[in-house]
Design goal:
Elements lengths: L2 E5 L2 E4 L4 E8 L8 E6 L6 E6 L6 E3 L7 E6 L4 E6 L8 E7 L20 E2 L3 E6 L1
Parallel strand pairs: 2-11
Antiparallel strand pairs: 1-3, 3-8, 4-5, 4-9, 5-6, 7-8, 9-10, 9-11
């Protein structure tokens, strides 16, 4: 019954912007750290960004720092990834994920590993054209 559903992916020209959404259902994720990962064929999932359960701290991969912003609206049980200045190298399937909800830690490099998360969405495709 617990689901994370990503939306907002699509095709955009280099330099453009997209905002991804991750809507949770089946339970509340107000006390979970929420992360975004991305994956291209033949590669492992790559960490993108994470926001703490309280929303008061964030941590980003160096490759997206300054271009992407993660945020959350707990009233809507939704997490967002605002992606600006998109590059072709950003092309990937983007996944949102939630941790166990029992860590209660700030966002840090701890959350860069896939094994830190218990719940995953199905992903949404982002394609950045040249």
């Amino acid at each position: 019954q617990v689901q994370l559903v990503e939306s907002g992916g699509g095709v955009v020209q280099a330099g453009g912007s997209l905002r991804l959404s991750c809507a949770a259902s089946g339970r509340t994720f107000r006390r979970n750290a929420m992360g975004w990962f991305r994956q291209t064929p033949g590669k492992e999932r790559e960490f993108v960004a994470v926001i703490s359960w309280s929303g008061d701290s964030t941590y980003y991969a160096d490759s997206v720092k300054g271009r992407f912003t993660i945020s959350r609206d707990n009233a809507k049980n939704t997490v967002y990834l605002q992606m600006n200045s998109l590059k072709p190298e950003d092309t990937a399937v983007y996944y949102c994920a939630a941790d166990s909800g029992r860590i209660y830690a700030g966002a840090s490099a701890y959350y860069t590993g896939e094994d830190r998360y218990d719940y995953w969405g199905q992903g949404t495709q982002v394609t950045v054209s040249s």
